[in-house]
Amino acid sequence: MNRFLTLFIVATLAAPAVFANGAGAMKEEIQSLRQQLQLLEQRLDAQSQQIEAQEMKTDRLTTIEEESLSYLQSLTQLKDLTDRITISGNLDILAQHTENDRVGGAAADDTNESDILIDQARLNLDVDVCENVQAYISLQYEDYDSGTYAGSGTTGSDTESALDDLHVDEAYITWAFSETFAPGETAMYLKAGQQFFPFGNVDDFGNFINDTLARQLYETRDTGALVGLTMDQFAASVFVFNGEDDETIDGSAFLDNQLETFGASLSYTHNEEDMGLKLGVSYLSNLYQAQNSTGGLGVGNYDDALPAVNLYGVLSMGQFSLSAEWVGAIDDADADDDPQGGGAEPEALSIEATIEVNIADRDITLAGKWEQNHDVDDFSTASAPVETVYGLSAGTDICENTRLTLNYEYQEASDDTAFDAAAGVQGGHAHWYGLELSVYF
After folding, report:
1. Which region holds residue 276: left if phi is over 0, alpha if psi is between -120 and 50, else beta?
2. b/e 246-282 (16+ beta carbons within 10 angstroms → b)
3. How many CB atoms lie within 10 A of CB 183?
4. What is the pTM of this model?
5. SS3 state of residue 135
6. In sequence order, what DSSP letters do the residues of 286-329 get, joined into one string?
7. Domains of the chain, each with CATH number or no CATH
8. Which segments of the chain have a pLDDT < 70?
9. What are the pLDDT digits (tens) for 366-417?
């Protein structure tokens, strides 16, 4: 009995201490749980912020990716466009000096002329429209008119203020009738628009600043159509255009509005490692329709068409080359079309020899030429044209795509037509000097 009482008393006295110890431990555990909960909330907040930042970063990356893709697509389209477009051109600045020696007439004083001008500024745009179609446009500016004494017209009147002289020189579309249209491969094509028709050696300009007398007589630019064929080393074409000069019937001029001027050409090209040869022949049904801005017959009206033939050849062997070109009417001109009334038969011949030499580690092109025309003066209504030309040329590349050319020409004027009508001058000669700086791209 006493034992049980003793145990009850001890238990009673010990219970508060036990409960007190348990409550403290529980309180500490609760406090620990609160701290862990706060840490967990902080971690959740940090993770939430990280997730939001990652989502913003992902959205930004998606936007950048979309913008980059759009930019790349634009670049691809631009590259495709630039791959199909070729831009080229040239700028020629000419310094010239002419010493005239006129013959006959009291007022036929010798004169000297000099100038610096833009010989030519040209911009070409060549577009591959599709696999078989190409478009070509060229804009050109020249800051002088046709001359009266120098062979190319470079001593003509000063027109540096004529800013409207910028014009479309060529604009045509070429449609190949086959999938391939490369040099040396068989292809047939149509070329329609304003173009230089292949009457003569229209692709080779030689090493002189002035156009040759032959080119001045035959060069033909007009709007029309040409059908061409290339096959191995041969090239052939036929072409037709309206022309600008008017025909005369029974002494009355009328608007010649017919596609009746036509021509044909045939050329042969052979190239080896140390030798090249090019031969060509062409026909034009009416030489009066040759539209050269610096020459031509320029009769204005004619009674009968004047058919003409052109022959040319170019031979190159190593550092040496020789070229010759002749153009002439097939028959005498109608007496009514000849201002002199003599039934002239105009023709012109140009010969040029070239050699490449190395002087002081610089490649220099030296060239000489002789030219002559016949009966062209009969069709001149102004001053006497140049009849004979002797020329020397030296040219070198001073850097990439930049060339410096020095020319001298001795030009003899025809003595059949007055050089200066007011002074009664007949013939004479001139010394022409030209220095041209050319950039081409």
Report:
1. beta
2. bbbeeeeeeebeeeebebbbebebeeeeeeeebebeb
3. 9
4. 0.75
5. strand
6. -GGG---TT-S---SEESS---EEEEEEEEEETTEEEEEEEEEE
7. 89-440 (2.40.160.10)
8. 1-23, 78, 102-110, 144-164, 179-185, 245-257, 291-303, 334-343, 377-385, 415-427
9. 999 999 988 776 565 444 568 899 999 999 999 999 999 999 999 988 765 4
